Amino acid sequence: xxxxxLRWVIIIAAxxxxxxxxxxxxxxxxxxSYGLPVAFVLNGLAYLILLSALFFFTVPVLSANKRxxxxxxIALGAVTFILYFVFNxxxxxxxxxxPAAIVAKIADLVVVVAxxxxxxxx
Length: 122
Fold this sequence. Notes:
By secondary structure, this protein is mainly α. It contains four helices and no strands.
């Protein structure tokens, strides 16, 4: 894949997973829960901040070091993917996974792989 295609793959996948996490977090907070929903909102915001620093806006420190921004985005996607299974292993074992989780986890993996490939081409 060329660098431009990878850029669009990263943008689409990161926005998809960010919006899912933000929506679930805001819905959880609206229903009166604050622990995990706040983490969901922070996760969604982290995706958008790192994505913005990588491709769109100047964010101090991050925009000056694109390699660091790539690594942080890869780490965010990997940690998000792994923590889903840590917190939800009992649902995964019985196959009780919702469509939002499936889409978000696929998007997380796509972010990790595409960002790694983009970094290698930089």
